Amino acid sequence: MGRAENLEHAASVYAAGQGLVAWLLLKCIEKGVTLLTQSPATRLVLEDGRIAGVEVREGDRAQQIKGDCGIFLGTGGYECNPEFVRAYQSFPNSAPHHPPTQTGDGLVMAGELGAFIRNIPTSLSSMVGYWIPRPGSEPEFHSAGIQELAYPHSIVVNSEGKRFGNEAFFQEFVVKLREFDVVKKHRYANIPFFLLFDSRFRERYPFANIPPERPLPAWIKRAESLAGLAQELGIDAQQLQQTVAKFNDNASAGLDPEFGRGQSLWIRKVGDSKHPINPNLGPLSKAPFYGVELTPTESSSAGLYTDIHGRVMHLRGHAIANLYAGGTVRVRTEYGAGYQAGLTLLGGMTFGRIAVEHALLGNKKPS
Questions:
Q1: Has residue 11 got a pLDDT over 60?
Q2: Distance between CA atoms of 10 and 29, rounded to whole angstroms?
Q3: pLDDT > 90: what percent of the chain?
Q4: What is the pLDDT of residue 213?
Q5: Phi, psi (5° rounding) for residue 275?
């Protein structure tokens, strides 16, 4: 099966964002677009005050590719660049859940020409997950996803053994991770934090892509009591038992008066619709108990600042002639801190089209 056939198959069997990307890539091939998959871009070519092309590396040699109408940067984010993560993100030790090629190449190339890099300081494009050990190789980061946090018979607590948010609604939940304790801890108040679940959860739901009928690996902590699990994870045992007792009393009635878990109709849809109590709520009462430490993971909140035509702006306030940007490399000023699945692809397609239309209209004079 050739490359085009593979993509046609992918476009027909994948859903959501993967299916859309596969279809778009297939259309590029059908229209004769040249794809260079082993030629990373290294710098922009500036001639007479305008971006004339881009330099790429092919093996040990550099090659310049000219762009008559302009150069469009769609290089993605910088989630796998530790220096950029420390500079722009809320959590300096944020775990990457993105491809290793997401290193901020577009910010580097445009930045060295004076491009305006803007940050959205309170971005909700954050999730949580955990590390899965892989013997003989690097550990793999697994996003906890909406379902693992939204299923009944589970809670998330900090090291003090206290809940701090609605686990099932990650956009609300991750905001609580940014709370900083300036008096006692001198660090983020709710980090480290842990996902705990009981045997009823395990009997019903997959975890770390492991179906219920299969045993869980040893890296997932377990104990016959909550106090024992707390000791395994480094959680305040006495407070944890109090927290779970209070949670269980309310969860048994399908309620969470403290944080409102299980009350939103939208969030209930991503839980267990067949659960007899509440799609998002159930007590933690059946041993053994299980737990893993969670880690925040973020998408890029900083990016190149563009005008309404998708042109990259200079620090001095003018557009950099012939340079456009779209997708995650462009700062998402159209919706600010908010986030929903699909917004990244939607922004890339919308502003990509706007930029190309502007470039093709013949904007060939510096502005």
A1: no
A2: 14
A3: 62
A4: 85
A5: -70, 135
pTM of the model: 0.84
Other beta carbons within 10 angstroms of residue 162's beta carbon come to 16
137-170 residue pLDDT tens: 888 888 887 778 999 999 999 999 999 999 998 7
Q: Are 320 and 311 in contact (CB under 8 A)?
A: yes
Closest CA to 77 of 296, 300, 297, 298: 300
Distances (CA, A) of 221 to 41, 95, 156, 231, 348: 44, 20, 14, 10, 41
Domains of the chain: 36-123+299-360 (3.50.50.60), 126-298 (3.90.700.10)
Cα-based distances in Å from 333 to 15, 84, 301, 347 = 27, 19, 10, 10
Asked whether the predicted pLDDT for residue 180 surpasses 70, the reply is yes
- The answer to whether 192 touches 199, Cβ cutoff 8 Å, is no
How large is the angle between the packed helices 226-233 and 237-251, nearest 10 degrees? 130
Instruction: Tell me the average pLDDT across 313-336.
Output: 91
Q: Could you give the CA distance from residue 279 to residue 150 in angstroms, rounded to a whole number?
A: 8
Mean pLDDT of 59-80: 91
- Give me the chain's average pLDDT, please: 90
- Each residue's pLDDT tens digit, 16-66: 888 888 888 889 999 999 999 889 999 999 999 999 999 999 888 999 999
More reliable by pLDDT, 365 or 242: 242
